[in-house]
Design a protein that fits this description.
Elements: E1 6-11, H1 16-28, E2 32-35, H2 46-59, E3 64-69, H3 73-79, E4 87-89, H4 93-101, E5 107-111, H5 117-129, H6 136-146
Parallel strand pairs: 1-2, 1-3, 3-5, 4-5
């Protein structure tokens, strides 16, 4: 199986219900969902979950990733430490579309304590249906990638 239709999902304990709702939504849309947990509500550390999902994307195992924590910020910061990952936190559909079209983001972060389920699903759809526009944006993405060296 290719990574083309695979999306990895992960979260901390604060975002389990929203992550599960997103997983079900994506499965209905034909995505192969790789949900790497956690599954129990005990307190857990978002950096390890952001890293684990980011490594799946960076390795090519999954084309895209969606990660969640209370605000979406901390888990996004952890994911962005992995070479090859460009993750943005979004609380609106415009930003979710733009991080794909202009920044070639391969991961999306959402704050489960910031947005409700309906908006989160719309954000996910905006992110997954947008494509990188290239052109003038490619040089800027190249500049971001060069910072990893």
């Amino acid at each position: 199986m290719t990574a083309h239709n695979r999306v990895v999902l992960s979260s901390d304990h604060a975002a389990i219900p929203l992550r599960q709702a997103i997983a079900a939504h994506l499965a209905l849309k034909g995505w192969v969902v790789v949900d790497i947990g956690p599954t129990t509500p005990e307190s857990t550390h978002y950096p390890k979950h952001g890293e684990a999902a980011a490594r799946r994307v960076a390795s090519g195992d999954c084309r895209l990733g969606i990660i969640l924590c209370g605000t979406g910020q901390g888990i996004m910061m952890a994911a962005n430490k992995i070479k090859g990952v460009r993750c943005g936190v979004c609380a609106d559909t415009f930003s979710a579309r733009m991080i794909r079209q202009h920044n070639d983001a391969n991961m999306l972060s959402i704050g489960a304590r910031v947005v409700g389920e309906g908006l989160a699903l719309d954000i996910v759809d905006a992110f997954l249906t947008a494509d990188f526009e290239g052109g003038r944006h490619a040089a800027r993405v190249d500049m971001i990638t060069a910072l990893e060296a």
